[in-house]
Amino acid sequence: LYRWLVGLDPVTELEDLRDQQQACAVVMNAIGSLTHDPPESAMCYSPEGASGAGSSNIAFAGGGLARSVDLYIGDRNVASLGHRRWAFNPAMGRTTFGYKPPFSCMYAFDMSGSGRGDFVAYPPPGRVPEQAASGEWSFGSQTFGVTRDTTVELDTGDGFEAVTSEVLVDNFGAGPVVKWSADALWAAGAVVRVAIRGTRGGDFVYTCLLYTSDAADDMQC
Questions:
Q1: What is the C-alpha separation between 35 and 105, in angstroms, rounded?
Q2: What is the separation of C-alpha 1 from the centre of its chain, rounded to a whole number of angstroms?
Q3: Is pLDDT at 171 greater than 80 in this prediction?
Q4: Which pLDDT score, from 0 to 100, does residue 215 have?
Q5: Are 117 and 139 spatial neighbours (Cβ–Cβ below 8 Å)?
Q6: 30: helix, coil or strand?
Q7: pLDDT category, 218, cuts 50, 70, 90?
Q8: Distance between CA atoms of 206 and 200, rounded to whole angstroms?
Q9: What stretches of the chain show up as alpha helix (H) in DSSP?
Q10: What is the C-alpha separation between 94 and 135, in angstroms, rounded?
Q11: What average pLDDT score do residues 184-213 get?
């Protein structure tokens, strides 16, 4: 669903890694906390589980396995936005999950997909359900090329104004992204024009409309 919202190809299940991802969730549960490098001394440790932990998004997801995907996309208090960036990697073609309540593991390193997608913006251009809104806003593009000089401006009706943003160049998923905070705009009815300035391909402008999917009229899109 989230990949569809941002215009990426869907993923299929990588059945061969079911056991690995479940072993990852089991060792997280045994440790009682999240780590990408579980020690061999940990209860329920296995090489398979350790391999899963080192190649996966991991989450404490008390609301269930599907809720963990919300957490990966929102990525609140994760400075790198690494979970979101792996989930939105255009090159991902397959994934699978493990779940030992309340711990979730999602395989993140697959590169078997098409890689199609000029850019990945979250929230994306167009109509976005308010219920999907969480975390910082972000934009990345293999085609346009986010650089250290990329900046962001927002227009909520009174013209574009620069906002504080940060370029993340560390290697998660499809490469660099620019991120910015706009929590006040995560609300139904918000219409926001976003201008990404200074990519290698020039400027990029798009519009987001947030709506509540509980309203029958809004379900017509």
A1: 11
A2: 12
A3: no
A4: 52
A5: no
A6: helix
A7: very low
A8: 17
A9: 2-5, 18-31, 47-54, 65-74, 82-87
A10: 25
A11: 91
Give the integer Cα–Cα distance in Å for 17 and 94. 10
Report residue 34 as tokens: 């999240």
How many Å apart are CA 21 and CA 51, to the nearest integer? 9
Sign of CA dihedral 171, 176, 178, 183: negative
67-107: pLDDT as tens digits: 999 999 999 999 999 999 999 999 999 999 999 999 999 99
DSSP assignment of 97-152 equals EEEETTEEEEE-----S----S-EEESPSEEEEGGG--S-EEEE-TTTT--TT-EE
What is the tens place of the pLDDT at every residue in 98-110?
Answer: 999 999 999 999 9
For the chain, the average pLDDT equals 92
Residues facing residue 95 across a β-bridge: 13
Distance of CA 141 to the CA centre of its chain: 14
Whether 76 and 96 have beta carbons less than 8 Å apart is answered as no
pLDDT at 217 over 70: no
